[in-house]
Amino acid sequence: MKNETNQHHPKKLKGFHAHIYYDADSKVAAKALREEIGARFDVELGRWHDKPIGPHPFSSYQVSFMPTLFGDIVPWLAFNRRNLVILVHPETGDDLIDHSDYAMWLGDSAILDLQRFRERITKR
Fold it and tell me: In what order do the strands lie in the sheet with 104-106?
């Protein structure tokens, strides 16, 4: 359904993040995916986090990429994710909205801990 009155276009789309989630059983697949992403795309590969960090409920690493790459990398990730769960979200400067309203999931979705982002808003 199209509702043009509620359209929102962020003023500052800085880029996108893809968070690749894994556990002990899927870390080998996550490593292979990471290597292939790095070889195929002009991205910034973040550190490995072998435990949940920030709002993320699982071990993960981050892939940062520019908006111009979205149409190439996101479909590629959808078809080559090796059964891993991936969160893709924009970087607009509003962490709460980026990780909730604008979040896109490849594979199953997960529940993020957004409390820290909500607390930042109430402290302003």
Answer: 44-45, 59-65, 15-22, 86-91, 104-106
Does 7 reside within a domain? no
Number of domains in the chain: 1
What 3-state DSSP class applies to 61? strand
The rounded percent of the chain whose pLDDT value lies above 90 is: 77
Q: Quick count: other Cβ atoms within 10 Å of Cβ 81?
A: 17
Mean pLDDT across the stretch 7-33?
90
List the one residue out of 75, 84, 15 whose CA is nearest residue 40. Answer: 75
pLDDT > 60? residue 3: no
Residue 6 burial class via C-beta count within 10 angstroms: exposed 0-12, middle 13-18, buried 19 and up: exposed
CATH number for position 64: 3.30.70.1240
pTM to 2 decimal places? 0.87
Nearest Cα residue to 22 out of 30, 13, 33, 32: 30
